[in-house]
Design brief:
By secondary structure, the chain is of the alpha+beta class. The chain contains 21 helices and 18 strands. The chain has 5 domains: 2-41; 60-176, Sandwich (Immunoglobulin-like), CATH 2.60.40.2380; 186-398; 426-607, Hypothetical protein af1432; 652-720. The protein is 51% helix and 12% strand. The strands form 5 sheets. It has a 6-stranded antiparallel beta sheet with strand order 3-2-5-10-7-8, with no helix packed on it.
């Protein structure tokens, strides 16, 4: 932070090289991606190695359709004028060039299909041949292997229509190259589904492993993971190439329905968690509706009342309450401002609902198109938004944690600063004022020296503990009223090194802390202590504190003198410029004094609050200092200073002590009314025959009762107020 002012040409070169490497690497990566895209999609293959052809022969024209004894010539694909249960026959003669290794390929759109060649059954895909009862079979490709003996013979497809009257095209090729076109047209969605499923599984397992240590919104991410896995399984179950990775592809007829009906349940659980269960009862009702109708559909299916496919439309309709609850809740959260807590997730869920509606519309309008494209896009957008939300939440959490840590550090430092001042009988409030002066000077030079607002704030609370090493200085040296002997002064100078050693553990928490503590008594001409640094070898923070420290010393009362006049303080700062102080900083500081931007945070040498009022603790400090300066014998100065420190702590909390000076000499024969004191009050001897009594947080009525009781007992006292 504070070493920025030492930047030289080498550091500028290093920064340039760093930017050159970073941006250069990104440009190379972008060029690489562009080349990959060209390699994948550019059809200009001139000069490229020939990969051969996977194309199949066109075998979709010239078919004869037989229905109810009537024949019709048609080309495939075609929509048959047929209803559920109708039986159709497609017939065509195989070419003479058919040979071993060739195959026919047709897609069943939820229909029963039997393949006959020369009147003999060659292949069959129907409800009758499967070991489970399912009327609407999952769509599938039937590949019939051919031999040279099949050349010139008649091939017939006996088709039983079920819901979908589509008669799909037929391909004739070698081996299984009929799959090539299907793979090419469906591979993207299938790969995306596999990738998203893996991501969902990793998300679930990652949460189960790490949630106790790091993740806060576990439920939302866990339900997102389950939703991702569920949708991915549904897309795979509906993939046109599922036969390539499912040994029993017909079973997708079950898990396709299971997964599609559970989408609404898992989405609802995720939405509910994202909205912090604000609308939990509503979501619970919607979830109950969806799950209950799913159970009813299973019962209807296995009891033979109706097929799962027949109830699919009701499943889609029953999913609507989930979307309705989410939309109403989101509108409410927008109005109340709660949306800010999950704005990115809300956008993701909105995208998901929109693309899910597009998927439903596409399904009911054109059932022959590949499924999963739209919902997959919505899912990817929702996951992206969820990632952004996690990043934003973690960033906010780190910032809040940093703010709490900073607040705790500042609070600790303020407490330490107060404890330092409490030990020193003659410098009450000194550390706090040094922090304020240093902060103001740092604000003025921030642009020229590259200081951030965080740097400026940090300078303030480093100023609070710059004298912490005084806790290691003996009381008889720290609080000596007269001039220190050379030996005592050598001990006093050790406070910079003591503070340096004491605060080493906090250096990582407060950058520059050790520099401020160790070097604030270094002089610009090199005659300071402890290390005799000079010029700009002295850290910037220490040079700032040196001026702030001296300014407060000159504008505050001391036991051996009263504060200096403003004119003399100004002249001293200028006179010591270039010897004790950094000349540039001293000039700027004097300019701030002349403009009124810096003025003593004291009134007649006594500490005041932000409103310009003298604190009660400061008044007591002022009296103590004045009495010591005038040679009054104070019984226990350190006790009085401790009371001042206690009063200062309470004043910051809005609590105040009401102070009385009570004469306790032999002239008072009555016993002091101890019942007037509480455990929170303080009663200490100020000087022979006089006690100072501080009553904690008493209102006017209570304080008046106390003074009346003292008068009635014949006690002499003085109310100590401004």
């Amino acid at each position: 932070m504070f070493d920025k002012v030492k930047a030289n040409e080498n550091s500028k070169l290093f920064r340039f090289l760093g930017k050159y490497i970073r941006w250069g690497s990104l440009i190379v990566l972008c060029v690489t991606i562009v080349i990959v895209i060209i390699a994948v999609f550019d059809g200009n293959t001139t000069g490229e190695a020939d990969m051969g052809s996977f194309e199949t022969a066109d075998f979709s024209s010239g078919w004869t359709l037989y229905r109810d004894g009537e024949a019709e010539e048609l080309d495939l694909p075609a929509q048959a004028d047929a209803k559920d249960g109708d039986k159709l026959v497609l017939s065509k003669t195989l070419p003479e060039n058919v040979t071993d290794g060739m195959s026919l390929m047709i897609r069943s759109s939820m229909q029963d299909i039997r393949v006959f060649i020369d009147g003999a059954l060659r292949d069959e895909y129907s409800s009758d041949t499967l070991p489970f009862d399912m009327y609407n079979l999952p769509s599938a490709y039937i590949v019939t292997q051919l031999t040279h003996d099949d050349a010139g013979k008649t091939v017939e497809y006996h088709i039983t229509i079920k819901n979908n009257p589509t008669l799909n095209s037929v391909s004739l090729g070698y081996g299984n190259n009929g799959w090539y076109g299907q793979i090419r047209s469906n591979i993207v969605v299938t790969i995306i589904a596999i990738i998203t499923m893996v991501m969902g599984l990793l998300l679930i397992f990652g949460i189960l492993i790490t949630y106790r240590r790091s993740l806060t919104d576990v439920a939302a991410l866990l339900f997102l993971g389950t939703l991702v896995v569920d949708i991915s399984l549904w897309i795979l179950s509906e993939s046109r190439i599922r036969q390539l990775f499912l040994q029993r592809a017909s079973l997708s007829g079950y898990f396709a329905y299971f997964t599609v009906e559970m989408i609404a349940v898992f989405a609802s659980l995720y939405f509910d968690a994202v909205q912090h269960r604000t609308y939990h009862k509503r979501f619970l009702v919607a979830q109950t509706i969806v799950f209950t109708q799913f159970i009813l559909n299973l019962i209807l299916h296995f009891t033979g009342v109706c097929d799962l496919y027949s109830t699919l439309v009701f499943s889609h309709i029953m999913s609507a309450p989930v979307a309705i609850v989410f939309v109403i809740g989101t509108i409410t959260d927008i109005r109340t401002g709660r949306i800010k807590k999950y704005i990115y997730n809300a956008c993701g869920m909105g995208f998901f609902l929109i693309f899910t509606l597009c998927e439903l519309a596409a399904f009911w309008v054109n059932r022959s198109q590949p499924l999963g494209i739209y919902i997959c896009i919505g899912l990817i957008l929702m996951m992206f938004c969820a990632v952004v939300q996690v990043i934003a939440d973690n960033k906010r959490a780190r910032e809040e944690h940093e703010q709490r840590r900073t607040a705790m550090t500042v609070s600790t430092i303020e407490t330490i600063a107060g404890a330092i001042d409490a030990r020193d009988e003659y410098t009450g409030g000194h550390s706090e004022r040094v922090g304020l002066y240093a902060e103001r000077l740092a604000q003025e030079i921030a642009d020229d020296y590259g200081l951030t607002p965080e740097d400026v704030f940090r300078i303030h609370y480093i100023g609070l503990v710059h004298d912490i090493g005084k806790i290691g200085v003996a009381d008889n040296v720290l609080n000596k009223a007269g001039k220190l002997t050379p030996e005592e002064f050598s001990l006093m100078k050790k406070h910079t090194e003591i503070g340096y050693e004491v605060m080493q553990s906090l250096d990582e928490e407060v950058e520059g802390l050790l520099d401020g503590i160790r070097y604030h008594h270094e002089r610009y001409d090199g005659t300071g202590y402890p290390d005799g640094l000079s010029g700009e070898d002295i850290p910037l923070l220490a040079r700032i504190l040196a001026i702030a420290d001296s300014y407060d010393a000159m504008t505050s009362n001391r036991v051996y003198r009263k504060r200096l006049s403003d004119e003399r303080v100004r002249n001293e700062l200028l006179a010591c410029s270039g010897t004790q102080f950094d000349p540039n900083l001293a000039k700027i500081f004097v300019g701030l004094i002349d403009s009124g931007d810096i003025k003593p945070s004291t009134i007649m040498g006594v500490s005041s609050d932000d409103g310009g009022r003298v604190r009660g603790s400061a008044l007591l400090e002022k009296k103590l200092q004045a009495d010591l300066l005038n040679g009054v014998k104070i019984s226990f100065p350190s006790h009085v200073r401790m009371l001042c420190y206690l009063m200062k702590l309470m004043e910051k909390k809005g609590k105040a002590y009401r102070v009385l000076f009570v004469r306790t000499g032999t002239g008072n024969k009555n016993t002091f009314p101890g019942q007037l004191l509480s455990d929170h009050d303080v009663n200490i001897q100020y000087q022979a025959g006089v006690n100072v009594i501080a009553f904690y947080d008493r209102d006017e009525t209570e304080f008046l009762t106390i003074t009346k009781a003292l008068k009635a007992g014949g006690w002499e006292f003085e109310v100590f107020e401004e």
